[in-house]
Amino acid sequence: MAGEPLEVILTVPDGPHEVGAVVPVRVEVRNVSARPLWAVGVLDGSEAGYRHPVYTPSVEGPRPVPPQEADGCGNVAPLRIEDFRLLAPGEGFDPTRGPNYLPLLAFANFAPAHPGRYELRLTLSTESDNAEDWLGMIGYPGEEAVVERLKEVPRLRAESAPVVVEVS
């Protein structure tokens, strides 16, 4: 949504892009506010929607693109204080690159099987005020500091502009 303090940006290299070849998708979350903000990257369970922050990628193309899903049991690793990233005004970071951050499978494995026009989008949701939606597990060392830091993460829903990939 326009007016949110964090912006989600997707970029891909200029084509040509060929059927079956992986298209590199770059992800950035940028602080577009006038003050420093805390953010968290893609964690265990973020892409599947098991936990916040939720990063929801979408790929639309000439034929349905099956969603990429990680194998999982629904248990996710704890949110740790080092998973938070302080962004100065105008600063961005790649939420898929960091000590505990994970790639977004829908984009990391994006190798279109058919020619045509594809549109990629990414939605970031930090809307939940319930700490349990973020923590991953309950009752671990350092949890109190994490819960306090969570209060400083802006609650929002931000969607990237669509990125168009032409595949031949």
Give a verbal description of the structure.
The protein is mainly beta and 168 residues long. The chain is 10% helix and 28% strand.
Distance between the termini: 32 Å
Oligomer: single chain
Poorly predicted runs: none
Percent strand equals 25-35%
Secondary structure tally, helices: 3
Radius of gyration: 16 Å
Strand pairing plus helix content: what structural class?
A: mainly beta
Q: Which bin fits the share of residues in helices?
A: under 10%
| Chain-averaged pLDDT | 92
Main β-sheet, in a few words? 4 strands, antiparallel
Query: What's the overall geometry?
Result: globular
Number of strands: 9
Tell me the layout of helices and strands.
Layout: E1 6-11, E2 26-31, E3 37-40, E4 54-60, E5 84-87, E6 92-93, H1 105-108, E7 116-125, H2 132-135, H3 143-150, E8 157-159, E9 163-167
Antiparallel strand pairs: 1-2, 2-6, 3-5, 4-7, 7-8, 7-9
